[in-house]
Amino acid sequence: MLTRKQHELLTFIHERMRESGVPPSFDEMKEALDLKSKSGIHRLITALEERGFIRRLPYRARALEILRMPEAPPGPPRGRFSPSVVEGGRGAAAGGARGAKPGRSAPPAETEREEDYERAVNIPVMGRIAAGTPISAIQNPMHTIAVSPDFIMGGEHYALEVRGDSMVEAGILDGDIVVIRKQDVANTGDIVVALIDDEEATLKRLRRRGSSIALEAANPSYETRVLGPDRVKIQGRLVSLVRRY
Fold this sequence. Notes:
The protein has helices at about 5-20, 25-30, 40-50, 110-120, and strands spanning about 55, 65, 120-130, 135, 145, 155-165, 175-180, 190-195, 200-210, 210-215, 225, 230-240. The strands form two sheets. Strands 3, 4, 5, 6, 7, 8, 9, 10, 11 and 12 form a ten-stranded mixed beta sheet that branches. It has a two-stranded antiparallel sheet with strand order 1-2. Strand 8 and strand 9 form a beta hairpin. The protein starts with a helix and ends with a strand. Mean pLDDT is about 75; it is low at about 75-115. The protein has four helices and twelve strands; from the N terminus they run H-H-H-E-E-H-E-E-E-E-E-E-E-E-E-E. Helix 1 packs across helix 3 and helix 2 (about 25-30) packs across helix 3. By secondary structure, it is of the alpha+beta class.
């Protein structure tokens, strides 16, 4: 069941893509729904994605695909969208910000967040990774997360959900999402996704000990595993982390 604003946004995106073949910008969506902040649009898009109505295409900012449309709008039909160019302050929600004054610019922090939403890159979440005892290897994409391009670098990236506490002293907690740059080499001291014996994946700090590779935890409760180089394949290097509160 969609809220009225979710239904309005989905309908607007559908109509715009049918007319022009491309999704509307965040500014166009904000104006169409008469919202005071693009952060409200971001929340609506996230809700539509979670409910399976749209999909954000990986590696392309603002690229949307409509997967399905609802059978009927919620409640009595409303009139056509009435665009508004009013700028608002912080605290805007799906129904608009209370107390926002027309013509007033958004605070710098809010403006920066809106720009991040506009520029965000969708990274595929490939499954779960163990920060503890190794578990299953990397899986197929589950969903995507939006990441600011400021927190990634050139090349291909993917994300994994952390399970376990072996990297807590490196600031990586159970439930965090780690963003990984895909690469098959790494320097000693890098935190990497390591595939062991082509079967188990783990998140550890890489240390080279002569001809061997040490996978080092950041928790004294866990032992360092020292393996031959033929048993370890580097799947990528940690470049960023997302924590959900």
